[in-house]
Structures are given as C-alpha cells and as structure tokens.
Amino acid sequence: MTKILIIEDEPFIRENLEDILSLEGFETLAATDGLVGIQLAQQALPDLIICDIMMPYGDGYDVITALREVPQTEAIPFIFLTAKADRASLRQGMTLGADDYLTKPFTPQEVLESVRARLRKATAQTQLYQSQIHHLSTELEFHRAHDALTGLPNRVALAACFQTLITRIRGTQQHLALLYFTFDQLASIRAALGSDLSVALVQQIGQRLTAASQGGGMAYISDHQFAMVMGPSPTLSQAQTWAEAVAQVFDAPITLEDHNLFLIPKIGVAIYPQDGVSFDTLLLEAEMAATGLPEQGDRPVSFYSTDLHQQVKYRFSMEADLHHALDRQEFQIYYQPQIDLKTQTLAGAEALMRWFHPVRGNISPAHFIPIAEATDLMVPIGEWVLRTACEQVQRWPHYPTNALISVNLSPRQFAAPDLRETITQVLAQTGLPPHRLELEITETVLMQDTSLAQHLLRDLKDSGIHIAIDDFGVGYSSFQYLSQFALSTLKIDRCFVHHLASRPKNQTLVAAMIQMAHDLGLKVVAEGVETEADLACLQSIECDIVQGYWYSPPLSAEAFEQGYAATPSATRQSLR
Predict the structure, then answer these.
(1) SS3 breakdown of the chain: % helix, strand, coil, rounded to 5?
(2) pLDDT at 576 over 50
C-alpha cells in the first residue's frame, strides 16, 4: 500500500487530508510539527510527503532541507501546503526541492490530482532507474565473464558453465571433460600479425572451440591459453573420444587476410568426476597434462593421470637445470657426416646438440629439446648451437671448402623477430661464408605462417644460405607447397629409409620423392642409413647425399676432425 506522510499542525486540515487519502486507499501517517515530521519520515520512509510551511518546531523549509540532505529521503516526492501563494514563497520551496504546491483552502480533487501526479512521476523515475541499474548490472556481468578485448567468455564464464552442467548430471553416471589448450605459436604469430589480426585470430580459435564443445562451453584464459568443458557424455570412453576429436578442428588452417595459419595445440584433459569434482582442480589437472608432457609427440592430446605429478616435477626440475646449462658449459655439439654418394666424399655435417648433465648424465635431446622449445630458453640455446658450429668449421684444418655445416632451427627460433639479424651477426663474427651454412627447418615451421615463411626463406637464400626441409614425409608432405618456398635441400626422414632394401613400397615412395625433388631443383639427403643394402638401394634411385650409422654416428668435434677433417682425403674408410 502506498504510504503518505502528512505534516500539519492544524488538526482540522490534517484530519481532512487523512480522510481524503484513506478513502482512496492510501496508508497515512501524521506529524503535528516539523521536528516530529523529520523523525517520522526518516523512520517510515513514506512514498510521498505533504507538509505545511508554517509550523512550530521547524517550518516546512526546515523539513525539506533536512530530508533532502539524507540519501534515504532525498528523492521522496514532496508537496507543500501553504496559505501564501506569492511568487517568492513558491520559488523558495521549489529551489529547496519541492515537487508541487497545494494552496489552502483546497478541494479533495486538487489533493488527489496532485498526489497521483507526483506518484506517477516517482514511479516513472523509479522504473527508469531500475532499467538503468539492470542495464548496468547486465553490462557488468558480461564484462565480468568475458574478455574485454576479444569478447570471448573467460574463466568466470566457464566456471559457471561447469556448475550448470554439474547440476544437470548430478545423481547420474555421466561425465564431463575439461580441456586446457595452449598454442606455443601464438606469441610469435602475434608479433608478426599485429594487434588487430591477433584479436581476430583469437576470436576464430574461440569460434572453433565453441562449435566443438558438444553442448558445453569454452573460455579464453589468457595469452595463448584456452579451456573448454565438454559434455555431458554417458560414458568415460565417450568423453575421452570427444576430447581426442577436438584436436581435429585445427587440421584446417585459419585464414586471416593473406595468411594461412596452421595451429598445433597442446591439449590437456581432466575428466569429471574421475579426476576431481571442482572446476579449479580439474582445470589445474588439465593444464598439468598439457604443459607437463612436451614430449608427447604427434598426438596433441594428453590425459591427466595420477602419476603425472611426478612427471611434471621431473620436467620442471629439468627446466630449472636447463636455465643454468649454458652458463655451466654442459652442452656439447656432436657432428654427423653427410656423404656424397657419387664422389664418396664429405658433403657436410649436421650439428646435433648433446647435454651432459653432471648428475643426470647424458640426457636425450628428445627429452630436453621440447622443454627448451616450450620456454624462452630455445632461442639463446639455438643461437649458441649456431655460433659454436660455425666456429668449429672454421677451426677444422681440412674441412672441405665446398662442404656445408647444417644447423637445425627450432620453431621458436624461426619465429623470433631478430632471427635474420642474429644469423648475419654470427656469420660475421665467426667468418663463415653464408654459402657454407645450411639451416634445417621442419614442415611444421613452414605451415605456421606461410606468408612469413616465404619472405624469410627467400631473404635467407638470397644471402647465400642453404635451406633444408627436415623430416620430410612425416608432416604435410606436399610438393605443391614446397615449390612455394626458397629451399635447397630435402631430407627424407629415417622412417622411410630404415630397411629400405626389403620394402618395395618404400622404395617406390622414396624414388618418387627423389625424382620430384630433383624436378624442383632440390638436392636430396637420406637420413638414417644403417646398412650396406639400404645404401645400395639409395644409390640405385639416385639419392644425392646420405647420413647415418653406416658411415658414422654423431661424433664429438675431436673425433669428427680425426675421421673427416684432419687430412684432405679423409673418408669413411679412415674410420673403419
């Protein structure tokens, strides 16, 4: 019921107003002077106040002044009662915040019209304020649950989605899969594309994940990190199948203007309720699964398991040791010779990094390279390998002047904005001519940003540096796209060369690779040659160069010099 406070010292007028308003269904309160009126207004908070001007213990002007200074009462509609109708009195009241005047004597109709008009206006203002508050509240809630730059849902939104799904499946045997995504390439792609295209790229990733969420939701966590809740699914195996299928949404490139970007996510998965019941726990476990196993190979999906903590501890312990390995001179470069099949002379050597840890011993590159690649360590380590290999070639007394030194470039190195300057500086400081250096990159590196790769490789090749595509045959393996890049050498992966002599299908495939590479003007290096039969097979299909244990394993700088760079005529026979 609408509550109206009447502040009037004359009993007849006060009672008359009470009767008029009560008959119309209003609840009334009454005060006989200004002081009581102020106290009653602050206690009862009426919907409207009708107040006489001339009263004892505080006139109407004192009342409105006091009430307008308090937040709880400052907006209550206020109607003055007065026998004074002069302009100055009216102006004074309106200046103090009065909404209307009733002049004594008044009729019931005048009172009701004034009261209803003030209440309608107050109601309209209240509705307007409520609408504005609702709009602001909605906006605040959206911003609280969405990334400000991309507009994608954030961690808060995903947690709410998770709780909604949990409520839906509570009491059932259904499962949820929580996935954590990290894209190592995003930092370098951002640097190359600029802020506008970077935002568009993140938005496209979000769209793909949303479409694959199987009724769940996704979130942009930060930087290169995303997360997704999938489900609910009826069985654990179904949840795992869905999670593994998500990686396929990135098989197709993301196109931004003239850039075709192939993204390779690492995906960690934790399953509700098998691995945990809280969102924060599952997200941490999924992140652990994604970032704790960099050596997971070609399969980008890793599921959380109870023994993963120990693996993660080992990884981070190794990462900590990696930070000091350069300063402590724990790295060494081994060199594997590459032999020209036509001349049986040294065509070059591939520089291969080895880590001899004082406690752990010899650590396989398969274990520490992915860790270095996942951090900022790969760039300085890679520069050290490049510089050391170039210096070593210059120190060998009889390393053939036409033989190359091949150095691998990691994806993180290739994406570094100062790569060209680093290579130029190393060559200048070591004195190695550019035409004696060969840089090996993988197909994956080329497909991160084809436009960027085209320009950089052309620039490097124009300076005289040779470019080799490594591990050919295990990635995209498209000769059509290889023709777009400034390459010099194609290296056939060892999986095609192993037992080549006894595998006719592989012989046909390798022969086709060699012929097509030659048609593109590329020389061919076969890796992993271990038997005389495989060597003879490669000779028969006109492979240019081979490397592998049939000639030599990777050697220390001293052993390589003794076998291949000590005299002008050093050959494989000198090692046997």
Answers:
(1) 50, 20, 30
(2) no
